[in-house]
Amino acid sequence: MSTDSLAADFDAAMARSLAHGAPWPGAVAVSGGGDSKALMLLLAEWARAQSRTLPIVLTVDHGLVPGAARIAQNVVKDAHRIGLKAHRLVWKGIKPSADIEAAARTARYHLMGRWCEAHGVKGLYVAHTLEDQAETFLLRLARGSGLDGLAAMRTRGAFPAPGFERLCVVRPLLKISRTRLRGWLESRRESWVDDPMNADPRFARTRIRKAWPALAAAGLSPVRIAAAADHLGRARDALEDATAEVLEAGCRFEGARVLVDGARLAAAPPEIGLRALAHILSHVSGQAYRPRFERLERLYRAIAEGELKSARTLHGCRIGRARKDASIFGPFTLIIVREPVRRRAGRTTVAVRDQIS
Fold it and tell me: Is 29 a domain residue?
């Protein structure tokens, strides 16, 4: 495919992103590598052609490898060269000695998330490519992830760090290959820096990248794996739509508590019921992550089989039968509230208990 058509394909990708609710103006995360540098250039040219506000470049100096500060400084210089404002964000403090990849990712998103919130920017544009889509699928497959984990990354997704619910990440390059981006950069005589961490065999993603030739020879190319992730993404979306219908018809959200039609929840297909219950528990507890599946499944089974005789706790919530005056869905109305806080003297707050029979 000719690199001449990349700009047109990127324009179409941005149109899809905006149609999915991607905010603009936005910031763009740039590491200095080929993918993020290409995204910076493409976004700048797209914004100028559309007479839109130019993106702001954010780069993180993680300090994990020699020359990290210089790489970040060069990103700022490159951004200024094409007329973009740029900010170098520094990860300070003691660096971890284990699980470095995950810690660095968390630190990057926290630094960029705080900057975006402080400056009223709602969308962070990141350079996840078709290969990243496929690599993420394989990484999660190796961890035993279910459908949601294996489903494709969304064009517009939740910000991947807790505490930044008002922000989102936008991935306009998910249908574009890394090879094509690098060919486009080479045609423009643009250089980039490969992060040494991308060649570190301690990291699972590095090992997958080295395995691509063997995987492709077996018919498992990045294009085919990314397509499989897309298929699962459509299945996930359908399940989420069905879950939303159950929540709308069988729940009443009343501030700190949720009243639930236990009979409707029990009658739903198990996958839908489990998703609905997980959503309610996360909403009440305020936790960004779902409860552990084994415990969630036990609770759902108790509800579905009519074995919820007394209140139970899970995920920071207390789940039980509602009193008669709160049984808006009939005798099998459930009430879910935040679990009482334990006090040092051994006492607990009891106000929420009075709502549960």
Answer: yes
Number of CB atoms found within 10 A of residue 128's CB: 23
Rounded-to-integer distance, Cα 72 and Cα 113, Å: 18
CB 335 within 8 A of CB 251: no
Residue pLDDT, tens place only, 184-203: 999 999 999 986 666 677 77
What is the number of structural domains in the chain? 2
Once rounded to an integer, what is the mean pLDDT over residues 248-257?
Answer: 93
* 231 assigned to some structural domain: no
Same domain, 317 and 268: yes
Kind of pairing between the strands at 27-29 and 123-125: parallel
- Retrieve residue 128's tokens: 């996840």
Mean pLDDT of the chain: 90
Q: Is residue 108 a contact partner of residue 60, using CB atoms and an 8 Å limit?
A: yes
**Does 8 lie in the same domain as 81?**
yes
Write out the two tokens for 79: 């951004």
- With beta carbons less than 8 A apart as the criterion, state whether 246 and 263 touch: no
pTM over 0.90: no
Three-state DSSP at 345 gives coil
Domain hosting residue 198, numbered range: 3-220
Q: 304 lies in a domain? A: yes
Tokens of 119: 């400056």
State the DSSP H helix or E strand holding residue 133, giving kind and residue range, or none if neither. helix 130-142
Contacts of 155 (CB under 8 A, 6+ apart): 13, 16, 17, 20, 22, 170, 171, 172, 174
User: Where would I find the beta strands (DSSP E) of the chain?
Assistant: 27-29, 56-61, 86-90, 123-125, 156-158, 168-170, 251-254, 257-261, 312-314, 317-321, 333-338
Residue 115 · residue 87 · CB < 8 Å? yes
User: By C-alpha distance, which of 115, 45, 123, 62 is closest to 87?
Assistant: 115
Other C-beta atoms lying within 10 Å of the C-beta of residue 272: 20
